Amino acid sequence: MNNRNALLMISFVAALLVTSFAGAEQQLIQNDEAKWSDGPAMLPPGAKIDVVQGDPGGTALYTARLNFPANYKIPAHSHPTDEHVTVLSGTLYMGTGDKLDPKGATALTIGGFALMPAKMNHYAYTKKATTILLHGMGPVEFIYVNPADDPRNAGQALTAP
């Protein structure tokens, strides 16, 4: 890479960073100040969400807490953007592949971190109530490996194309 291309690349990355954080304001939020609501329709029922910063449906940086009840399962799926997960309480079991496979999962305990790259099929489940911090660049979208697992399809007859 010549100097001109390197300078263009540095300028591009700097512009992205400035755009990502433009208009950001200081936030200091305690755990007991969480404003929980029902999780989005793309998740199986039972999840709760507290959007801490940004808009997960937008195209910028977001941060959200998610609370999952005991014995909660998120079938194999992927996302169009990277997913960053930090466990705040409980244990989140995560694995990669096209099906939820408890034998292939890793138990992430308090402070545990996972990065699931864009388009990587993965799954998650809990055995006890668990809270995570989810952050990344939006928009958040779930693409289930098996469309029948998508809760947005509940009650709809799936037909072959």
Question: How does this structure look, described?
Answer:
- By secondary structure, this protein is mostly beta strands.
- The protein has one domain: Sandwich (Jelly Rolls), CATH 2.60.120.
- It is built from one helix and eleven strands; from the N terminus they run αβββββββββββ.
- Strands 1-2-3-10-5-8 form a six-stranded antiparallel β-sheet, with no helix packed on it. Strands 7-6-9-4-11 form a five-stranded antiparallel β-sheet, with no helix packed on it.
- The longest helix has 19 residues.
- The C terminus is likely disordered.
Which helices and strands occur, and which strands form pairs?
Layout: H1 3-21, E1 37-38, E2 48-53, E3 61-68, E4 73-78, E5 83-89, E6 92-96, E7 106-108, E8 113-116, E9 122-125, E10 130-137, E11 143-144
Summarize the structure.
With 161 residues, this protein is mainly beta.
CATH class category name: Mainly Beta
What fold name goes in the CATH topology slot? Jelly Rolls
Question: How do the strands line up in the largest sheet?
Answer: 1-2-3-10-5-8
Query: How many structural domains?
Result: 1
Q: Based on CA inertia axes, which overall geometry fits? A: globular
Mean pLDDT comes to 87
Structural class: mainly beta
* Oligomerization status of the protein chains: single chain
Provide the helix percentage: 10-25%
| Parts with pLDDT < 50 across at least 5 consecutive residues | 6-19, 157-161
- DSSP, total strands: 11
Helices and strands, in order, run as: HEEEEEEEEEEE
CATH homologous superfamily classification: Jelly Rolls
Tally of contiguous helical segments = 1
